[in-house]
Structure formats: structure tokens, C-alpha cells
Amino acid sequence: MSTDNTITVKFFARLREELDTATLRVEAKPGLTAGQLLHDLAGRGGNWAQLDGAQPVMIAVNQVMTKPEKALQPGDEVAFFPPVTGG
Amino acid sequence: MSTDNTITVKFFARLREELDTATLRVEAKPGLTAGQLLHDLAGRGGNWAQLDGAQPVMIAVNQVMTKPEKALQPGDEVAFFPPVTGG
Amino acid sequence: MIRVQQQDFDPAEEYRVLRDSGSGTGAIATFTGLVRDSGDLKDVTGLFLEHYPGMTEQVIEGLVHEASQRWDVREARVIHRVGFLALAEQIVFVGVCSAHRGDAFAACEFIMDALKTSAPFWKKEITGDSEHWVEQKAADRDRSQSWE
Amino acid sequence: MIRVQQQDFDPAEEYRVLRDSGSGTGAIATFTGLVRDSGDLKDVTGLFLEHYPGMTEQVIEGLVHEASQRWDVREARVIHRVGFLALAEQIVFVGVCSAHRGDAFAACEFIMDALKTSAPFWKKEITGDSEHWVEQKAADRDRSQSWE
Asked: What is one Gene Ontology biological process annotated in the Swiss-Prot or TrEMBL record (chains A, B) (predicted)?
């Protein structure tokens, strides 16, 4: 996790492949929630549009599963991924 | 199993020890049931008396668990034993 | 595969056979029971296990057959030891392989629970200076009945 | 003991550690999952398993901790492989030892069920000429929720 004013965003599995992105950084705007961040990213269009509800997206903040309402802090690590299928 | 007019009776575990008997033979009287045989054996008195209900006794005829009402045939193998405790 | 024997067994060997049971196998559940120091008596040093030769094998065959009708069972292996067993020795092994995890768990647990209440084995606990036939536990009867 | 690794594992070795966990152990339940040829695609030749390093281990630690609070768990060992795995290869191992058989079965099955729905692993099925991310099965969600 970084100590500057950014949030690290990670993608896994199908999302990582379809967005062609494993990691990116975004600015930690005051009041930003995980769900809002997801909505903002969907606004990029193209494959990113699927983040806006077309497929279920799980959210983890600092490696703990969380709800979209979760407020983000500078330095947080947010991960978006499809429902898990291990075991 | 014998082919003559007898029934083989076996005892296991605590019963085998307390009756000091692993196997005995009895005559296959017409109409004899497993429960009646148990009652007859209890009539021997001493440690045998416990066969008459003081302790639960399981009954198998020809190696299949059965009820006291089961009628016995010449050549049958009857076993009496305490509830099982393996595994 | 069902075996009743005095000698010890190797769960690793049983696992290898289960694993080699074909490409449809996705799940292997195993259970091993050990002699434990906290039975009906204190300071147990071992067990003596008696069985009813012939009937024991038939009963276990029946349980495996029943499990195979209720769940997907590719192969099941059951081993039960008899005779004198010291503390911490292995007593019983049940291993099941299946296409699916739920079936493997259910069949393995069903066979083990039913074996405890219907296979003709009897345990005697041995301490330094006494021995004592173990009584059937109501909890075991209940666990087995819960499958009915 | 929790491990996430590319290399294969030996269930026999895990069993040995579980068995040596102390004289109170009377029951050892294990589960092993294998790559199976009947997933969402036909003619699967293997899997690719991705995970979220760090979070995966934390989630599994949490599941083992939860199991230890609900049941008697002397020791639990969980291994999950990642990367490319061919057909019939071992994917996952869960082993639990306990004083009692019911606890060993329940804790082992709980950890395995919960792992499938909450640990961040993703499977991609690979056939000769295509690949395809596996979708989460409703049955797995239901099995895990049945523990709640």
C-alpha cells in the first residue's frame, strides 16, 4: 500500500484479462466509496462498462471482502474480481 | 453351519467372557425362536440369567441382525452379543 | 475393498488407489480413527478389539453398497483392525472417491457412522491394572440414525 | 498450517503431521480435490488457477480460526495449488484432526465448502483449443451458506 494520496486498484481473473489491467492507481478523492470507484471506472467505456452491474463484481478493500458503501482512504488497496471458483 | 438337527450358538465380547463360552450347540426344536432360545439359556442361572433382559442383547441369525421373533431352523448359526462398539 | 485385519495399514497406500480410480474422480475424502487416551477409563494404555468373522465383512459390504446407492461413489476402501492396539495406533480407515466433494464427504461419514453402530466389533479398554468392555454411546446411535 | 503454492503436495506427509499432533487425537478427516474431466467445458486438459496473494492466506486463516471455534480442532492443514494443473493433478488438500470423529468431519467439510466460496481463487478451464473462466456454481454458494 502506498502512503501518498492514491488508491491502488487490482483486478483478477476474467476482469484482469478483459480489462487488460492487473493494477492501476487512482486519486483518493474525499468521500469516494468502493462502489463509486467501480462506477467511475465503468465510465471509461468499452470492456470497462461491464463494471457497472452487467456481471457480479466482488470487492475487497485491504484484502477484506466489503460492500460497495465502504469509504476509501489514501493508501488503500482495492480489488475487484469475479465470484471466486477455487477448491 | 451344520447339516444335522442342531443350531450353533455363538457369544462375543463381554457375553463370551462372562458366560465363559464362545460356542455351543442346541437342539433345533420345532417352533424355536431366537428370543425363546435366549430365554431358555437364561434359565441356566448364574451369569446366564443376564440373557433375560438385564442387559441389551443383540441377535444375529446366519450373520444377519434379527429380532427375537425370528424362527430358527436346523443348521442355523445364532449369535448373541452386546451392542457393538467398533470404529 | 474391505479388510478386517490385525496388522497396521498405510492410509497413503489407500489414498493412492483411490486417486487412481479414474479420470472422473474429483474428490477424495478419508477418515482415520486412532486409539485415544480418554475413553471410559482413565490412563488407557490400549484396546482389545474383537469381531465376528464373516458377519463383519458382510455388514460393511452392505454399508458400502448402501452408500453407493445414495451418493456417487467411484470407489470405497474400508479397513478395520482387530486384536490388541496400543495408544495412538490406527484403528479404522474409510476412504471414498467421487466426482463431487459433497458425495465424497457424505458417503465417507455415513459409512463411518453406520460402521460404529452396526458392524460387529467390540472394544475393550485396557489400563495398567484393569480392563473393561466399552459401552455403546447414545451419541453414536443418534449419529447413525440421523442418516435414516 | 496454510500453504498456497505451485508445486504438488503429498497428502501422506500432511497425514503424518496430523497424526503426530498429540495423544488426544482420535479422528483425522482429510479431503483432496483433483482436476476432473467434466467441468463446464468438454475435453478439459487442465486448469489455470489464479489467486490474490496475501488475501488468500488471510481468508483461509480466518476459516480455520472459525472452524476451531465451532468444533474441536487439534490441528488443521490446508494446501491450495495455483498455476497450470493438468488433468488428475491434485488441487487442494484440507486435513483436520480432532478428539472426535464428528468434529473432524464437520470442520474439514466446513473449511472446504467455505474456501470454495470465499477464498480468492479463480479457475480457468483449458481444452485443446480454448480456455474459459469457470463461473461460480449456485450449489457451492448454497453449501457454504448451509453452515451459517
From this structure: Mo-molybdopterin cofactor biosynthetic process
